[in-house]
Structure formats: C-alpha cells, structure tokens
Amino acid sequence: MHLSRIRLVRATAASLLLLSALPGMAQDLRLSGAVSDRSTGSPLQGATVRVLELNKGGYTGADGRYQLALGSAARSRGITLIASYVGYLSDTVRLSPGTAPDLRQDFALEPQEVMAQDVVISASKGLSQSQADVTVSIEVLKPKALEVQALASVDKAISQIPGVDNQDGQINIRGSSGYAYGVGSRVMVMLDGLPLITGDAGTASLDLIPVDNLSQIEVVKGASSVLYGSSALGGVINVITADPGERPRTSIRLRGGVFGMPRNPALDWDGDKSPWSASAHVFHSRRIGKLDLTLQSNFIQESGYRQGAESEEYRNILMLKYRPTQRLILGLNASVSVDSSGQILYWRGYYPDTAIVNGQPVVTGGALTPTLDDGGFRRQLKAEIALDPSIKYITQRGDLLWYRGRLLRNTNRNSTNQESQNYIAYNDFIYQTLLWKRINWVSGATVSLAGVQGDSLYGGSYVFNGDTIESSGSHSGNSVGIYTQLDGKFGPLNTSLGFRYETVQIDDAPREAQPVFRAGLNWKLAEGTNLRASVGQAFRVPSVAERFVNTSGGGVVIDPNPGIGSERGYSAEFGFRQGFQASPGAWQLRGFVDLAAFQMQYEDMVEFGIATRRLAFPRIDIRFSSINIADARIRGAEATTLLEVQRKAFFFNLSGGVTYLDPINLNAVPADSQLDLVNVPTDILNTAKVDQPPVLKYRSRWTVRGTATLGYGPLSLTGNFRYKSFVETIDQYLFIVIPDLADFRARYPSGDPVLDMTLSCDIGRRQNLALVVDNVMNREYLIIPGLLAPQRKATLQYQIRF
C-alpha cells in the first residue's frame, strides 16, 4: 500500500511537470548568432544559414550576424542548421528537441583550400559567389595589391588590370571604347554598387573613391546592362569599400615625389627646376556601439610636369552605418572633392622652340608646353559632392530588401568661360531571396534624374535639321528601369538568366524604351576546372554633352546633335579556367590560368566626327559633332593568370594577362574614299572623302599587363609592366590640328612598354617606407594624341598605422 502511494505521487508529479513544459514546447524558436572566419575571427557578410528540415534560411548582415524566426515545430522535433559561405567549408549543427525558445548559435567556418579564387558580388548584384563559378570573366584586385603600389588614387591600379585601358580618365574594357574626348562612357564605374557617372558628360568621378579604405576592386568584362543599365555596354568596374572591424583602425600616409629629366632634354621647359608632387592621406574607422564610422581626408598637390598644369586637390569622405537591430542597417555616406588645376588640350609641338636669352638658349615651346592658340590651355575649378543614403533590411525569412541612393553634384568653372553645373540622383530598389535552396533571385527597379545647366557650354544658337535653335543650356533627363536575374546552382552547374526593361527621356524628346537579356552557364568539370559561356545585350544612351555641347577650343569647333541615337549591342564569351595548388615540402603554391574568347558587336556606335568642312578664308573651317558613325565588331582572346608562392617568410606573387583585339568598323569605306591627312593634307577640302577606316579608332590590338612581387619578411619589390601595341587609327583631323603628331607616331611604331617599380619595407609593426619609381625606362608615350605622358618620377611614401 505504501509503495502504491509513492508510485501514484511520482506519476502525478511527472504528469504535472510534463504539463508545465508543454506551453514552453509550444513557443516559437527564435534563433540568432554570427558567422565568422575561424582563422581571423572577421565576420562573413552574406553567409547562408539554413534549416534543412524546414526549407528556411537567411543571410548574414555586414557584421556577420543572422536572425531566424522558426515555428514551434522546430523546438518539438529538433532541426539541423547548416552555415555556408563561398570559399569556406560548411558547418552543420544538430539542435535536439526541447531547446530554449531564444537560442544563440555561432559558426566559425574554416577556409577551404580552394585554388586561388576570390569571392565576388558584382556579377549578381550582391550575392557572394566564387570567382571561378561566375558565368562571365571577372577580375579581382585585392587591397594588398593596392597597398604595395603606394597610390594617391585608383587610376594607376585600374590601368594595371588585364583588358582594361585608361585614356586620360576615360576607361574601356577589351576595346569597348576608344577615346571620346572626355564625354560618354561604355564602362559603368561604381562605388559600392552605385554609379560614379556625372550628369552631363557621363564620365567617371574617380576622385571620390576612398583609396585607403578598399575591400577590393571587381571588373566584370562584357555587356552588363541587365543589372546596371546604360553605360555598362562594355562592362563594369565596381570599387567596394571595407566596413570597420572589431578594433579601431587609423593610418597616415605622407608622399613626396619629383620628376626627372624628360627623355628628350630639349623638352625641359623649367630649366634647373624639377616638377614635384606631394600628398597627405589620413584615414580612421571604428565601431561605436551600433554605429560604424569611417573618415578619410586627402590633400594632393603637384607643380605639374607640363607647363601650367599645376594642381591642388582636397578630398573628404564620411561613411556612416547604424544598426538599430540585427536585421536593419541604415547608411549615409558623404563625399566632397575640390580640384583646382591647369589643363593642356594638346602640346604646342613635339619639336621645341627655343629663344636666346642672355646669350643662352631657352625652351619656349614643345611637347610639355601648351598651345599658343586661344583655348589650348585653361585653368579650371571642379567641385564634386556626393550623398549616399541606404536602408538595408533582412526579413525573418532571410530575404533582403535594400534601397541605395546617390546624389552626385558637379560644378565646373574655367578660364575659357565654359562653365556648367550638373547633378544626377540615382535610386536603386532591390529585393533578393533564395528559391528552393539553390536559386538566388534578385529583382529591382532603378529611377534616376539628371539635370544640367551650362549656357556657355550647352546653350547658344545652332542649326539642326535646317532649323535655327536657341538654347538656354538647361537640360534634363530621367530613366526608369526594372530588372530581374536568377542565379542557380545545380550540382556542378551554375546558371544565370536576366532581363531588364528601361525607358529614358531627354528634355521633351519621345521616351525611348530598351529591353535587354543575358544568360550564362558555368560547368565545374572537376575541382578547380571550370568552363563558362555567356551572352548579354546592352545599350547606352548618349550623354547630354554628346547631344548638346556647343563650344570651341584649341582650333576645334563642336556643334550639337540633339537627334543622336542610342547605341545597342551584345557581347558573347566562352571561357576556361584551371586552378592549381601544390605543397612540395615547405613550399606553398597556388594559382590559376584563365582563357577566354569573346565577341562584342555594336549598332550605331557614337563617335565625334567631322560634320562639315569648308574653306573659310584665310583658314579652313572644320566642325565636329557626335555622330552615330559606325556599326562595329570586336573579336578577341584573353589569357590571364595568377601565381602565389610562399615558403615561410619568402613569398612571390605574379598576376597579369594578355589581350588581343580585332576591332572592325563594319561601315568602313574603300581605301580611295578614306580621308588621309598624313600623306595628302589637301584631302581636308575633299568632302567626297570621309574618316571611316576599317579599324576602329584608338584601339591597340595587343595589350599586356603584368604585376610581380618578390618579398622576404618585411621587404618586398614590386614591378608593374604595361604594354600597348601601336594605335593604328585615330581621328584624321588631328594631323592638321596637332603639330608634329604624325612625326611622333612614326618615331614609335612598335607600341608603348612602361615599367613601374616599388620597393617597400615595414620598419616596425605599424610603419612602412616605400619608394615608387614610375616609368623606370623614361619612355616617351602618349596618353592621348598630343598629350605626352609623364617622364620618370620617384616618390617616397611613409605610412603609420595605429
């Protein structure tokens, strides 16, 4: 009897305990945590955390944190969590039934021994992907490669990327552009996924890029208008900044440089003086509670290696991110750049003039001095201001809602009374989700507004289609686009399919519609071996400057052409990538070889060309306009490679590539109808002859880029090699306008090899000294026709970090 009562009491207590636990078991499971790199402890943004049994998951934010709201069933039956990130081994955790309703589960992922492949986001607008798995050619420039070059700006670094060329600030990829006199761009240059394109000329504002706070630079080669709209006809350059880490970071860089004697001593216009440059760069980033703060300030001054081309530039950048919750990030960036400089349109002549002063010859002209013509030289003051608001929200299901905006305003004043102001307001709305655990779906809409005011540059009186038009120089435009792209992973096969529909209106002209598609495949044949194929359409709407510029300078008159049409085209590519790695003894080797064959074809390509020619005594009157002058096809091949070798304190890195182009003008005229102002200068009066050569202008068939770093412990030596083969065709009228241009081109028919060297040494844990010598061989070459590149220059940099 006694035992029966005891058993009854125990049974009753157990029943009551079970009943009391049932409400807790019915509660939803709220799961949170962080995903980090096991070796460094740094957070992994964009890592995936998913629940195997419930087909639910989400992404980590910029701080590596995630949060999931799961149903009560997750507590009652238990779940399996899987954390994964490109380039890392996945981690799996099993949660038993009856876990607490609020549970924190962190993951520290182990880096995978992949074969020299970086993580990229530009190919799919936010999704982290392995460089080897994307369906297009994409190059990655890492921060370490930038640091060893001791840069004042990113121009030089971009020029070192295989397949990329920078002609006086005008960037092209695989010959997608020639030189368009500073207006229009077929390459979309972006900072953190937002365009850095001005509202008037459509050129890139590289001065607003914070060179001391870069995560990496990604270059997508080929048509990219589906995700990025107009100006991405030839590809995309996306400069990605770094978020503050767990510890505050501060750096100060001081640079001083001096130019040497020109290769031709007769061009030494400043006598005993030596042109110089100096700059100071201050950077600080830190986390203050839920706030990320980044500050950067630069001051750059140069006396100018060309006469009158001295410059002063101030840059200030503020970046803020505030995280009120784990799923919400509010951001605001502000950038200001002020640049005062002198500019030469083209040289006075390659062969210098001299005068006798006090019995001594003095240089009074030459390739480093401005023209005597009115407008051949100018002083300018340029101010740029950018504001970038953003709101990023990750839902409980793990979907991403993201708004990003950029207001970019430019003011240009100069001594030739060609002043203007312009702005562009760009807004991007993104929704991203994961479908069936294997397809990333990104969709969104972009809305941009642009305005230009420049009565002396874009206004005045002109004749168009027989009508005389009076313009105030005030112009506006807007575009609205919607896009969607699916990136799927099915075992060894990666797929991509996208579509965009955009409408554009300039002033009161009819609204223009542009639908474009893209598709791509990447097949992983084996570990480190990938085949890829892609095809994509693209378009470019001509800039306000191309439509309405109405000006003259240096003997050149440019008329407006408001009726110019948009460019359309496509690019296709087939590529092969082979990674490799080995560990013989204490040595560590890894790298890859990438081979690609490509074709780009454009309709109605826009170029500045001769609109009218006539003899207006006592001089020839030549007038130019932007014209839909050619259909074009560019075929080519490219080989790029990376090799990293390390043995204890010794290391050697080699990267670079070779690009070959066959740039054909499909509307070329027969040789007897082609303008030839080198051999027959009087052709300028023969209006039956036109400037339509069979080879597209301003392209080099061969370009080579190579960077090699050899180091031991704190000491390293880096060499940057660039080569461009001879530019076969340029605008014929330049041989009339620019003195000695034909003679200079005849002196260097084999192209332009250029070598830069950097010797870097860490002088303690936090300090570094670097000696940079640009143009080591003191090579004479042209940036653009009539504009000689800098002679040899030596720069010393001191940097301290704390």
Task: Summarize the structure in words.
With 802 residues, the protein is mainly β. It has 8 helices and 47 strands. The strands form 9 sheets. It has a 22-stranded antiparallel β-barrel. A hairpin with an 8-residue loop joins strand 20 (291-302) and strand 21. The radius of gyration is 30 Å and the shape is globular. Residues 1-26 have low confidence and may be disordered.
Range of helix content: under 10%
What is the helix tally? Answer: 8
Which secondary-structure class do the elements indicate?
mainly beta
| Largest sheet descriptor | 22 strands, antiparallel, barrel
Could you provide a short overview of the structure?
With 802 residues, this protein is mainly beta.
List the helices and strands and how they pair.
Layout: H1 2-26, E1 29-37, E2 48-51, E3 56-59, E4 65-70, H2 73-77, E5 79-84, E6 91-95, E7 102-104, E8 107-109, E9 119-120, E10 129-130, E11 137-141, H3 143-147, H4 155-159, E12 164-167, E13 170-173, E14 187-191, E15 194-195, E16 214-221, H5 225-228, E17 235-241, E18 249-259, E19 276-288, E20 291-302, E21 311-325, E22 328-344, E23 354-357, E24 360-363, E25 377-394, E26 400-414, E27 420-435, E28 439-453, E29 460-464, E30 467-471, E31 474-490, E32 493-506, E33 512-526, E34 529-540, H6 544-548, E35 551-553, E36 556-558, E37 567-582, E38 588-616, E39 619-647, E40 650-665, E41 702-712, E42 715-724, H7 734-737, H8 741-747, E43 752-762, E44 767-774, E45 782-784, E46 787-788, E47 793-801
Parallel strand pairs: 1-7, 1-8, 14-17, 36-39
Antiparallel strand pairs: 1-4, 2-3, 2-5, 5-6, 9-10, 11-16, 12-13, 14-15, 16-17, 18-19, 18-47, 19-20, 20-21, 21-22, 22-25, 23-24, 25-26, 26-27, 27-28, 28-31, 29-30, 31-32, 32-33, 33-34, 34-37, 35-36, 37-38, 38-39, 39-40, 40-41, 41-42, 42-43, 43-44, 44-47, 45-46
